[in-house]
Amino acid sequence: MYKDLQGKVAIVTGAATGLGKAIAERLAAEGVKVVVNYHSKNQGVEEMIKDIEEKGGSAAAFQADVTKQEDIKYLVEFASDTFGRLDIMVNNAGIENEVPSADLTLEDWNKVINVNLTGMFLGSREAIKYMLKHDIQGTVINMASVHDRIPWPHFVHYAASKGGVKMLTETLALEYAPKRIRINNISPGAIDTPINAEKFNDPKAKQEVIKLIPMGYIGKPEEIAACAAWLASSESSYVTGITLYADGGMTKYPGFQAGKG
Length: 261
Hints:
Elements: E1 9-12, H1 18-29, E2 33-38, H2 45-54, E3 58-63, H3 69-83, E4 88-91, H4 106-133, E5 139-143, H5 156-176, E6 182-188, H6 197-200, H7 203-210, H8 221-232, E7 243-246
Helix pairs in contact: 1-8, 3-4, 4-5
């Protein structure tokens, strides 16, 4: 537990399911007042808020499209109006789809880039503007992927977006370090989330993924949420501009693990 997080206010985008849900729930358990952002209706958000409150936490839901700057502006205003301030911005919302690069349409390219990269920029920008205006030494956490480093055929738009998020994070961190606004990146590996459910329900496909992970298992959303809680806390007070790979060693060339090569 990070006692310094108690009473702080966070926004988590794309928090209805998967990693966003786990991060929102972990921050709430730490005593953070959490704004749960979601894109679509009927995603179980009300049940999530109720569960957080029954456990003694504070949370509120807000529907917004992360690709629309007015929506993000209203999201930040909602957090401030509801809980009085904004200390932590977690830009988590993201999408992916598999398409051979030669067949990838401009529409599909733009859709993924707009959510995964432009959405991160808009969320970071509005949070930073708020923190500067109110003299808050806050924290921005962006969610990238091991594919900001590992090429991923058939997912060129996704990999490109996540590579962009990494450099976006590093550039913003350098720019706002003098203001003590810390901006960091989490790059998860293979995690057991709904977006991966179909793949991991196939034992053969799951085993093929596990072969790429030196630690030998698929990660849990709670393990990524733990990274976010640490980066949000004062325990990481001297950390800015990093990419924290939470991937079981996937980025460490697993093919060479047994001395091969």
